[in-house]
């Protein structure tokens, strides 16, 4: 009975370690995905802001569309910042 218990404990520990490794791997993937999304979104936002701030009055028709782009970028970045994976230390 003792040998069975030890084998069961070993299997449980092995399964626990495997689950921990899987979770850690998934956390790393999510962190990388967030980074991969944040970088181009921030670039798009900065370009739209630059166009609005450094344009002549003749592109007023486009300013509304650029403002929408900026707002969408800000929403995406806010969601990325406040996602559950943001506070997990790897």
From TrEMBL:
Q: Which reaction does it catalyse?
A: ATP + protein L-histidine = ADP + protein N-phospho-L-histidine
| EC number in record | 2.7.13.3
Signal transduction histidine kinase dimerisation/phosphoacceptor domain: which residues? 26-81
Q: Which UniProt keywords apply?
A: Kinase, Transferase
Q: What class of enzyme is it?
A: transferase
Give a single Pfam family match. HisKA
Q: Name one GO molecular function term.
A: phosphorelay sensor kinase activity
CDD domains annotated for this entry? HisKA
Please report the name of this protein according to its UniProt entry. Answer: histidine kinase
Q: Which organism is it from?
A: Filimonas lacunae
